[in-house]
Amino acid sequence: MQLTIGELAKKTGVSVRSIRHYDSHDLLTSSRACNGYRYFPPEAVAQVRQIQRLIATGFSIAEIRSFPDCMRLIEGTTFCPETQAIQHKRLAEIERQIDELERRRARLKKTLMQGERGE
Known about the structure:
Blueprint: E1 3-4, H1 5-12, H2 16-24, E2 31-32, E3 38-40, H3 44-56, H4 61-66, H5 69-72, H6 84-117
Antiparallel strand pairs: 1-3, 2-3
C-alpha cells in the first residue's frame, strides 16, 4: 500500500518539508498520481528513519546520497565496507571539534577564575 507524503510524515515523525527535500535529492523513491500527489512505497518509512539517523551523526545530504544502498535504504544499518573510510573521517572531524571545544572551555575557565580573583 502506497503512502501519501502526510502519512509518511506521520509514521516517521519527520516534517513533510524534510520528506520533500529528501525526495528532491533522490534519497527516496516516489511516484506521482494523476492529481500530482506524491506516493511512497512502505519501505520509505525505514529509509526516512535511516536518513534521519545518518543526519544525526553529522552526514550531509550529499554524503548520504553517495552512500551505497546498504547504508541508505536499510533502517538501522550502521556499517558497510564501502562507507568505512567516510565514517572514520567523520569521527576524526568530531574528535577535532571536541578537542577544540575543550581548549576553548579551559581558556574560558581560566579567564573567569582570573576575573573572580581580581587579577
